[in-house]
């Protein structure tokens, strides 16, 4: 957002920071009431948000030779994970870490 000029106005920064704090306390309150509800809420947010550009580039573009060579659980050139939303990014990170 900063690259798009979202940090230029004081009010925008103020609003973003306070919404982040309110979101944290909302999530913490939801977790104390019902962990299942809090996890479901987090999944809904993650499925709604788009994948960051850096994650899309990492998993889909460039020279993927080394990427395939390190994926030893599957046949090379068969693993092209989908990167449609933030939840997919977290799943791909989990799968990558499971390879180690």
Automatic annotation (TrEMBL):
Metal-binding recorded as keyword: yes
Q: What class of enzyme is it?
A: oxidoreductase
Q: Which UniProt keywords apply?
A: Electron transport, Iron, Membrane, Metal-binding, Oxidoreductase, Respiratory chain, Transmembrane, Transmembrane helix, Transport
Q: Which reactions appear under catalytic activity for this entry? A: 2 a ubiquinol + O2 = 2 a ubiquinone + 2 H2O
| Cofactor: binding comment | Binds 2 iron ions per subunit.
Name recorded for this polypeptide: Ubiquinol oxidase
Tell me which family the UniProt entry assigns to this protein. Belongs to the alternative oxidase family.
Source organism superkingdom: Eukaryota
Q: What cellular component GO annotations does this protein have?
A: membrane; mitochondrion; respiratory chain complex; thylakoid
| Lineage of the species this protein comes from | Eukaryota, Viridiplantae, Streptophyta, Embryophyta, Tracheophyta
Q: Which organism's genome codes for this protein?
A: Ceratopteris richardii
The places in or outside the cell where this protein is found are: Membrane
Give the UniProt record's GO annotations in the biological process aspect.
alternative respiration; carotenoid biosynthetic process
InterPro entries in the cross-refs = AOX, AOX_sf
* Pfam families (UniProt xref): AOX
Query: What cofactor is needed?
Result: Fe cation
Q: What is its EC number?
A: 1.10.3.11
The transmembrane residues are 14-33
State a single Gene Ontology molecular function: ubiquinol:oxygen oxidoreductase activity
